[in-house]
Design goal:
alpha+beta; 4 helices; 158 residues; OB fold (Dihydrolipoamide Acetyltransferase, E2P); single chain
């Protein structure tokens, strides 16, 4: 399905929508010292100039940028919209073969299009990324523990 992203190319920014699934984190280094917060959206759609939605991806992982953090902590199936640019990346592992895939990056003009709770009930993110990563770990601790994944910043002061 990401062939549509390939067709769009990386020259121009487009408007997209997606349903929130969950948060996560990834390490930006081989030593697994520096974690960065992420989020996964499903049912990614391009909004064309006439407001028509065109499916472009089943799901995409995105960095939890300032724009997404400003929305507060999302609930599954809430819908967000944002402007983004298509980019390529290497998918896979060295020994198992890599291939080119497509992602969306540099999200801007992020908006919560469909909220499932009142704004007053929405929790906010802490300011620092290490705190955000630890909060994400706590949200899904049971799953992370099952998979043997340690808390990203266990020695930091809360």
């Amino acid at each position: 399905m990401r062939t549509k992203l390939k067709e769009l190319g990386s020259e121009q920014r487009y408007r997209y929508t997606g349903k929130f699934v969950k948060y996560g984190f990834r390490y930006s280094d081989w030593g697994k010292i520096h974690a960065k917060p992420t989020m996964i959206l499903k049912d990614i759609k391009l909004l064309d100039e006439n407001g028509v939605e065109i499916a472009v991806a089943d799901y995409l992982w995105l960095n939890l940028t300032v724009g997404f953090k400003k929305l507060g902590i999302l609930i599954e199936d809430e819908i967000v919209s944002f402007n983004g640019r298509v980019a390529t990346y290497q998918k896979g592992y060295y020994l198992h073969g890599k291939k080119v895939d497509y992602k969306l990056e540099r999200p801007s003009k992020v908006v919560l299009t469909k909220s499932l709770i009142d704004d007053l009930q929405r929790k906010v993110w802490p300011e620092l990324n290490w705190q955000v990563c630890n909060d994400i770990y706590d949200m899904y601790a049971e799953d992370y523990l099952k998979r043997g994944i340690a808390k990203p910043y266990p020695k930091m002061f809360n």
